[in-house]
């Protein structure tokens, strides 16, 4: 059976409607979303996604990390399935498309295949990975990491959120502990459609990012301990100020990233100040450094320099200093054959495209360890993401999903 022609396209209006309907669950305060993992809103979004998948004739499987797998049967039940998916959880001030486009775009691919009455040899599976963001429970990509054998389930279940709630208990509370053994599923291939979350594709006027690599990441949680004291009556020379230490280290992180340009980034996004009272010198600060590079040597060098700088600042200020890695993956090279299929699909469909390295981490980065994997990206406005003002156009969403459709049909092998 020849591969479907370039006139086969997804239903863009249906996809856009589904994105808008999902965005109503866990709404943000500024037009985006706050559907953090394992909250009631996440549970509600999962139920909606399950209803949609079942209405599209798929059967839903769930594993013990809450990863969701909706299967469209193939003509050969023994053939390894072709997976596609991403994540439905969002940042606390997240956008409507980060992750969600990859899950609902995959659903739209199945809806379109159904509309066309196509059959494929390989089953097709639409996936929602639990806790990709790592905002509530670090690290990011936690459940795909367990699936890929990076983390144990016990480690994951015992991760706690800022209120001390445990991942395993929260997953049970929302009723999404499945019965499948994590990682037991075998894949022919996995595709992840995702917004770029950076400015390159829009700036270059390209509709499709052919993702060849993903940059590596370290999340280093630093705890500085000083001494709570009065901000008014304590002489400057007597202060043991953990807040000052955090400020100096934050500046050093920026300088270290700038010293490794191009292809290096670094920042501090999460800070907990204790006791966080206006007139108390902080005796303890816990903050996470996020450093990334597509180049292994730069990533390793930045980690060493940040740790050296943190201990040096702590010594200057008489602070205690402990550093715990709470997230890490090395730079990723996606499957060249699948990358070629994505590129050829974009060309067949007449979409402008360019090769790109993913700046953000994705579940695909872990699944790449256990199955041939790659990604398809579409632009986002001003490259903005992890911000409620995140925006894409319906045309960009449709272009990325059209490419996903054709790439998946090629790998799943249309039979009639
Ligand atoms: O941190 C990341 O790159 C992703 O958004 N979890
Ligand atoms: Mn994402
Ligand atoms: Mn994200």
Per-chain topology:
Elements lengths: L11 H12 L16 H16 L3 E4 L5 E5 L9 E5 L13 H17 L7 E5 L13 H6 L5 H5 L9 H7 L15 E7 L4 H5 L3 E7 L1 E10 L3 E2 L11 H18 L5 E10 L5 E2 L2 E10 L2 H22 L2 E10 L2 E2 L2 H14 L3 E6 L4 H5 L5 E6 L15 H19 L4
Parallel strand pairs: 3-4, 3-5, 5-15, 6-14
Antiparallel strand pairs: 1-2, 2-4, 6-13, 6-15, 7-11, 7-12, 8-10, 9-11
Give me a quick take on this structure:
The protein is an alpha/beta fold and 416 residues long. Helix content is 35%, strand content 22%.
Please provide a written account of the structure.
The chain has helices at residues 12-23, 40-55, 100-116, 142-147, 153-157, 167-173, 200-204, 242-259, 296-317, 336-349, 363-367, 394-412; strands spanning 59-62, 68-72, 82-86, 124-128, 189-195, 208-214, 216-225, 229-230, 265-274, 280-281, 284-293, 320-329, 332-333, 353-358, 373-378. With 416 residues, the chain is α/β, with parallel strands linked by helices. It folds into 2 domains: 12-214 and 331-412, Zn peptidases (Aminopeptidase, 3-Layer(aba) Sandwich); 216-329, Alpha-Beta Plaits. Strands 1, 2, 3, 4, 5, 6, 13, 14 and 15 form a 9-stranded mixed sheet that branches. Strands 9-11-7-12 form a 4-stranded antiparallel sheet, covered by helices on one side. The termini are close together. The structure holds (2S)-amino(hydroxy)ethanoic acid (HGY) and manganese (II) ion (2 copies). The site of one manganese (II) ion (MN) has 4 residues, from loops.
């Amino acid at each position: 059976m020849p591969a479907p022609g370039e006139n086969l396209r997804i239903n863009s209006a249906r996809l856009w409607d589904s994105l808008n309907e999902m965005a109503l669950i866990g709404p943000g305060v500024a037009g985006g979303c706050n559907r953090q993992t394992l909250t009631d809103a996440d549970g509600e979004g999962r139920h909606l996604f399950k209803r949609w998948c079942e209405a599209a004739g798929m059967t839903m499987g769930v594993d013990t990390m809450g990863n969701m797998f909706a299967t469209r049967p193939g003509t050969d039940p023994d053939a390894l399935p072709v997976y596609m998916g991403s994540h439905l959880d969002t940042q606390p001030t997240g956008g409507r498309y980060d992750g969600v486009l990859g899950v609902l775009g995959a659903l739209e691919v199945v809806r379109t295949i159904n509309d066309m009455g196509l059959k494929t040899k390989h089953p097709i599976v639409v996936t929602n990975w639990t806790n990709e963001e790592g905002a509530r429970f670090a690290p990011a990509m936690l459940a795909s990491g367990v699936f890929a054998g990076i983390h144990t389930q016990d480690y994951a279940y015992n991760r706690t959120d800022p209120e001390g709630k445990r991942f395993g208990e929260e997953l049970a509370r929302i009723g999404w502990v499945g019965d499948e053994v994590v990682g037991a599923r075998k894949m022919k291939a996995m595709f992840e459609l995702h917004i770029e979350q950076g400015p390159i594709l829009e700036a270059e006027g390209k509709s499709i990012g052919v993702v060849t690599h993903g940059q590596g990441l370290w999340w280093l949680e630093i705890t500085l301990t000083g001494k709570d004291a009065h901000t008014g009556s304590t002489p400057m020379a007597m202060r043991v100020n953990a807040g000052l230490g955090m400020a100096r280290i934050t500046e050093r992180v920026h300088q270290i990233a700038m010293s490794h340009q191009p292809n290096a980034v670094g920042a501090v996004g999460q800070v907990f100040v204790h006791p966080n009272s206006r007139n108390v010198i902080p005796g303890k600060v816990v903050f996470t450094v996020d450093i990334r590079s597509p180049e292994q040597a730069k990533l390793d060098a930045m980690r060493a320099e940040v740790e050296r700088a943190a201990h040096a600042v702590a010594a200057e200020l008489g602070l205690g200093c402990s550093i715990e890695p709470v997230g890490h993956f090395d730079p990723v090279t996606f499957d060249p054959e699948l990358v070629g299929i994505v590129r050829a699909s974009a060309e067949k469909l007449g979409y402008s495209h360019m090769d790109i390295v993913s700046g953000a981490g994705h579940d695909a980065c872990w699944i790449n360890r256990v199955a041939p994997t790659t990604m398809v990206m579409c632009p986002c406005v001003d490259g903005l993401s992890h911000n409620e003002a995140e925006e894409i156009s319906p045309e960009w969403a449709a272009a990325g999903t059209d490419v996903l459709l054709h790439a998946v049909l090629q790998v799943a092998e249309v039979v009639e």
